[in-house]
Amino acid sequence: MTETKAIRNDIPRQEQFTLLQRVFFWTSGVNIEILKQVPLEKNKFFGIGGTILFTALMAFMAGGYACYAVFQSYGLSIVFGLFWGALILNLDRYIVCTVHFFEKLSLRMMFSRVMPRLIMAIFLGVIIAVPLELKLFEREINHTIEKRMLADLALQEQRVDALFKDEESRLLNDLEELKRNADERTKQIIELQVQVNKAYDIYMKELDGSGGSGQKGVGPIFIEKKKEFERLSQQLDKYEGTNKNESLKSQERITYLEKQLSRTKKTKEQRLANFKVSNTASNGLAAKIVALNELSNENKSVMTAKWLISLLFIFIEVAPILFKIITPKGPYEYILHRKQTEAVLSEKWELKQLEAQHFNKMSQYETKMAYELKQSLAIYKHDEDELLAEEAKEKTTVVQLSEG
Fold first, then answer.
1. Cβ distance 26 to 16 under 8 Å?
2. Rounded to whole angstroms, what are the CA distances from 342 to 192, 193, 297?
3. pLDDT confidence of 397, banded at 50, 70, 90?
């Protein structure tokens, strides 16, 4: 019984992994069946898988935010974020899975082999970092965009004012001239009305003797003053009639000019409103990237923070590859190399067997064809000999007949 227990204890048991470990191992691209044979290697691949998975999560957030900045839709942003995160996860997993160094190579040779993968990883790190940088500096970016929008709006107002300046000036000058003429006519009427009232007072005082000559009744002076009053009254009535027609025409012209001026102002306001709408609508992803670059050029602290964030994501992206280069080969790599070598040799052996079988079949076919050809030639020669014998026999018969 003791020997049986000892034998059972000597039998290696395969490691059982949790669901979280399996997920991290899958993202690292490791073969779980091989890893079960060497459980000491699990921490290494657990760390690689965790780095790749968290990079994919950051890519999900970055892609979702970038999509929201363009389309302003939560549903579409979530869908695109999931797609982008899955894409980055698959690319990172592929990059790490294809980095294997079974033979002894110098560090320079290793880097030359993985350089395309490193370049791809750096590129992915930059792509992931940009949307997150936009989110981190969102307040400063919005402030920069707002300042640029106000500056653009002020410039557009100047352009619109310059465009409608001549027309507005012409309309305002015409209105002022018409109003000035109307005021002058009104002033002239008032002056004539004062003269008429004054002439009326004079001739009425002349009539009652309270003024003028002091003689009551109708006299030569009264008649003269009355004629003066009538003349001024007629002049006032005539001028009022003429002024009434002029005032109607002037008022119609003033109303028309005011409408034209109001229409011009509305056109200006509409153009400015359309510019504001288009300017606000252009506040998308490209505008935020431009604002971030402007902010970086203006503020060295922002530029430093921006580059540090980019370098951080680049390092996170290339860390699994560098880790696999620097870390010495462990038992997992040797087992994997052995299995790959066995698979390659097995395939090569099967290929040689197939080639040998094909060669044997071809040899048998060629032997058969040569035998059949030899038989055909023999038959042909036999037939040819018989034909020549019959011809010789016929010639002999013909000669005998001719001699007889």
1. no
2. 126, 126, 58
3. confident
* φ, ψ for residue 183, nearest 5 deg: -65, -40
What the block records as the tokens of 21 is 């470990």
pTM of the model: 0.51
Tell me the H-state helices in 98-219.
107-136, 138-208
Non-local CB neighbours of 107 within 8 Å, separated by 6+ positions: 325
List of E strands, 315-394:
none
Phi and psi, residue 35, nearest 5°: -65, -30
Please give the Cα distance from 55 to 66 (Å, whole number): 16
Express each pLDDT in 117-145 by its tens digit: 778 778 877 887 888 888 888 888 888 87
Q: Cβ distance 282 to 70 under 8 Å?
A: no
Which residue, 116, 60, 124, 64, is CA-closest to 92?
Answer: 124
Q: What are phi and psi of 211, to 5 degrees?
A: -160, 180
